[in-house]
Amino acid sequence: MRYYIVIPAHNEEDFLNDTLTSVLRQSLLPSQVVLVNDNSTDSTEQIIDQFIELSPIFQKLNTQSSNEHMPGSKVVNAFQKGLAFLDDDYDFIVKLDADVILPDNYFEKIAYIFKGQPNVGIAGGFVYEQDANGKWALNHPMDKKHVRGAFKAYSKSCYKAIGGLRCAMGWDTVDELLAAFHGFEVYTDDYLKVKHLRPTGGAYNAKAKLLQGKAMYTMRYGLAISLIASLKMALKQRKPQAVMDNLYGYLEAQKEKKPFLVTEKEGKFIRQLRWQNIKKKLIG
User: Fold this and answer.
1) What is the dihedral of CA 162, 167, 171, 175, to 10 degrees?
2) Which CATH fold topology does 3-196 show?
3) Are strands 92-96 and 3-9 parallel, antiparallel or unpaired?
4) What is the reported pLDDT for 202?
5) What is the pLDDT along the chain (284 residues), one digit of tens a residue?
6) 93-127: b (≥16 Cβ within 10 Å) or e
7) Which parts of the sequence belong to the Glycosyltransferase 2-like domain (predicted)?
């Protein structure tokens, strides 16, 4: 199968070399890789240039944006610019972070999943991060059917159906909800262990703490589901303050009348799906 990768990169000199080396080692190479140098002030561009010399699959796109590492809008904006740089001749598209190391057979297995199961719209593996003892341990606080935003692969039909990625916090949740709305499934493979070199959320600033709640509002969760989701998040992350942060963010978004990421019809489906999953877990 033919696939493209878009890698947004903002000041990634510490990790980018390892990420691109793991891309070059793939048993099934991508047809093209667009490296979006997003306003970097370190040696990110020099590293990109080195890999462009190594292989013709790499292309560079320099772009300007904020210096802040804000979750959601910055990275998706860079991804969209990179995607616009490509043609439409692909079977699946990958949004890849610049701080991961992939297993050598990662995309061969992703291609196998998409080819063998046309109903799958989003596929990926699992994040492993180093603990205090240097051991690579699973870090997946979400549902096992969720693919982390660091390495999302979309079939062309799914990506077109959901209308691309939303340029906002919550983009890597609403994409899966919209995929379900359009009849696609999410597939995660336990054997695809991706090493994440930067601790999750490690680059986010203090402004980001309210964005999760705002995302819940814009995804039309409603207050009840947002509260339940926040309690679950607080328990898993062992951060009680997350409940208050999320609810404050939700109410702020409601007060400011933030634009929704989904239509009323999609929102109704999302709420029904969320309640179904909550009831399943309570019964189970």
Assistant:
1) 0
2) Spore Coat Polysaccharide Biosynthesis Protein SpsA; Chain A (3.90.550)
3) parallel
4) 47
5) 999 999 999 999 999 999 999 999 999 999 999 999 998 999 999 999 999 999 999 999 999 876 655 566 789 999 999 999 999 999 999 999 999 999 999 999 999 999 999 999 999 999 999 988 889 999 887 778 899 999 999 999 999 999 999 988 889 999 999 999 999 999 999 999 999 998 655 444 455 678 889 999 999 999 999 999 888 888 877 888 889 999 999 999 999 999 999 999 999 999 999 999 888 877 75
6) bbbbbbbbbbbeebbebbbebbeeeeebbbbbbbb
7) 5-145
Domain with CATH 3.90.550.10 in the chain: 3-196
- Cα separation of 96 and 98, whole Å? 7
Q: Which two tokens stand for residue 165?
A: 């990625």
* 240, burial (CB in 10 Å: exposed 0-12, middle 13-18, buried 19+): exposed
- The amino acid at residue 244 is M
